[in-house]
């Protein structure tokens, strides 16, 4: 049952060289730089996003994920979910409004998978980039690179997938849209939605807690994906897999790496999810088909390179 979580709102990602990272996320993927703060963090957004930003880059000695924030409907929902998390047994902390640029207070917790999540209700809304509020054009001029539309989802790897799935279902109101099930019926991958999307977050089993597999940005069409692949070659960016199609969610995809080694995805298409849909099930022994529907096997780098 839905509990008032609306969407993935932001992700804070560690990069090892900010200017190199900006060439990648801003100039190649096409996100828009909107601000920098006194901690050296740089804030970016996809052009269709109404909130001020969705990607926060912070310079660090190691790549990886600091946290993912989900936006909730309002402050009452935020207070209710904070209490529900505490009652469920989660350790919860809180950041004051303004600690992250133009964002209200944030309620933070660590999932059984080892990943840090936060909930927030307020962030400054600056509207779709370059478009008027009244009689808007369909897209703005002067977009760059892949012209990514929005930050869409993350796939995270860590232990305790069933416990993490239970937390997201029971406390946060997500639904299980697709799953990968081992021969003993253990869920080894859970694709979860708080919206109509095929997934807003996905968890895949691995022994190391808190790992980022990829952060994904939406493109509009398959043709845009082909041009994105051209851009990866033109810019000598390290590719992982694709363009190809997933079995899981049936989206079309390319994977590649940012200069610090964080895996990115750009994707388009795919399935949709309503809360009454039963989960789509894939067998772990058919994981090749589930992940890469055309190739039918898992590329060796795909499950091994994590940040
Ligand atoms: Fe993805």
From TrEMBL:
<dbReference type="InterPro" id="IPR004360">
    <property type="entry name" value="Glyas_Fos-R_dOase_dom"/>
</dbReference>
<feature type="domain" description="VOC">
    <location>
        <begin position="150"/>
        <end position="269"/>
    </location>
</feature>
<comment type="subunit">
    <text>Homotetramer.</text>
</comment>
<keyword id="KW-0408">Iron</keyword>
<dbReference type="InterPro" id="IPR029068">
    <property type="entry name" value="Glyas_Bleomycin-R_OHBP_Dase"/>
</dbReference>
<keyword id="KW-0223">Dioxygenase</keyword>
<dbReference type="InterPro" id="IPR037523">
    <property type="entry name" value="VOC_core"/>
</dbReference>
<dbReference type="GO" id="GO:0018577">
    <property type="term" value="F:catechol 2,3-dioxygenase activity"/>
</dbReference>
<keyword id="KW-0560">Oxidoreductase</keyword>
<dbReference type="GO" id="GO:0008198">
    <property type="term" value="F:ferrous iron binding"/>
</dbReference>
<dbReference type="Pfam" id="PF00903">
    <property type="entry name" value="Glyoxalase"/>
</dbReference>
<dbReference type="InterPro" id="IPR000486">
    <property type="entry name" value="Xdiol_ring_cleave_dOase_1/2"/>
</dbReference>
<protein>
    <recommendedName>
        <fullName>Metapyrocatechase</fullName>
        <ecNumber>1.13.11.2</ecNumber>
    </recommendedName>
</protein>
<dbReference type="InterPro" id="IPR017624">
    <property type="entry name" value="Catechol_2-3_dOase"/>
</dbReference>
<keyword id="KW-0058">Aromatic hydrocarbons catabolism</keyword>
<dbReference type="Pfam" id="PF22247">
    <property type="entry name" value="Diox-like_N"/>
</dbReference>
<keyword id="KW-0677">Repeat</keyword>
<dbReference type="InterPro" id="IPR054560">
    <property type="entry name" value="XylE-like_N"/>
</dbReference>
<keyword id="KW-0479">Metal-binding</keyword>
<comment type="similarity">
    <text>Belongs to the extradiol ring-cleavage dioxygenase family.</text>
</comment>
<feature type="domain" description="VOC">
    <location>
        <begin position="7"/>
        <end position="122"/>
    </location>
</feature>
């Amino acid at each position: 049952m839905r509990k008032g979580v609306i969407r993935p709102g932001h992700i804070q990602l560690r990069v090892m060289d900010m200017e190199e990272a900006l060439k990648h996320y801003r100039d190649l993927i096409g996100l828009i730089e909107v601000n920098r703060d006194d901690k050296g963090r740089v804030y970016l957004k996809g052009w269709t996003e109404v909130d001020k930003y969705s990607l926060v880059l912070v310079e660090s000695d190691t790549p990886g994920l600091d946290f993912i924030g989900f936006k909730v409907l309002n402050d009452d929902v935020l207070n209710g979910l904070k209490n529900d998390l505490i009652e469920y047994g989660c350790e919860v902390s809180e950041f004051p409004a303004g600690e992250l640029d133009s964002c209200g207070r944030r309620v933070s917790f660590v999932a059984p998978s080892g990943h840090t999540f936060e909930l927030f209700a307020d962030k400054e809304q600056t509207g779709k980039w370059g478009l008027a509020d009244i009689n808007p054009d369909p897209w703005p001029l002067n977009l760059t690179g892949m012209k990514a539309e929005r930050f869409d989802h993350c796939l995270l790897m860590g232990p305790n997938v069933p416990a993490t799935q239970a937390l997201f279902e029971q406390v946060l109101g997500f639904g299980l849209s697709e799953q990968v099930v081992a021969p003993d019926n253990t869920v080894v991958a859970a694709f979860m939605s708080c919206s109509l999307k095929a997934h807003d977050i996905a968890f895949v089993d691995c022994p190391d807690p808190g790992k980022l597999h990829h952060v994904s940005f939406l493109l509009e069409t398959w043709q845009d994906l082909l041009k994105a692949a051209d851009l990866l070659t033109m810019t000598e960016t390290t590719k992982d897999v694709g363009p190809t199609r997933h079995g899981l969610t049936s989206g079309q995809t390319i994977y590649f790496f940012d200069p610090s080694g964080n895996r990115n995805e750009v994707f388009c298409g795919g399935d949709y999810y309503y809360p009454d849909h039963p989960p789509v099930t894939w067998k772990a022994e058919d994981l090749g088909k589930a992940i890469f529907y055309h190739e039918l096997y898992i590329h060796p780098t795909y499950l091994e390179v994590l940040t």
